[in-house]
Amino acid sequence: MLKNNNQRAKNIITIFSILFVLNVIAIISDLLQYSMLNSIEGFTLEEAELNDSRQRIVSIITFGIYILCYIFFILWFRRAYYNLHQVVKHLEHTEGWAAGAWFVPILNLFRPYQIMRELYIETENYICKVKSDYKKKLNVTFVGIWWTLWIIASFLERIGMRLNMDAETLEEITRATKINLANEFFTIPLCLIIIKVIKDYNNVERELFEIEKNKNLEVSDNPNEVITTTD
Prior knowledge:
By secondary structure, the protein is mostly helical. Helix content is 74%, strand content 2%. The chain is elongated and about 70 Å long.
């Protein structure tokens, strides 16, 4: 029984596109703050208050979008692994780990990558067995790039949050701003690579659906329904 995953893929692409735009805005906002903090002429109390208000608004909106990114990605990720489990019986992990691995310390540093890599490899291996003329379209290298950027951005994000919470002096605020900028510069290519990884896999997953459909399986466009045998 396969579950439609196309809408979830579209949701991820949309939300990470929004995050991409927000990170560009955040970079501009942080550069303005950095310029103000390092201004030779100094800055007024009014300028500082306007800067704080702008930074607070950008941070709150960005944080909310980050939460949605995590939710939408895990929903898509788990369903993709569930679908693969329906046609490939020798997968390394259970479907639940596609969601649970993100919340387990240490394990979340490598298990999601292993599952994504398995999705890329095993899905195409299965399709190749069924369709002799199928030409592979997925490049596992992009999965490695995605995970490397993800780890770096997550690391910088945690450092930035800690510095922002503790920053009191101009020097501490400036240091926190630099870390925030580094995180945002890594997050921009991360958004682009996630969009590519999802798009590429979604296209291949559609082929998986077509194969199962041609094997006398009934495919539903309703994301809450499943593919069931017509026998």
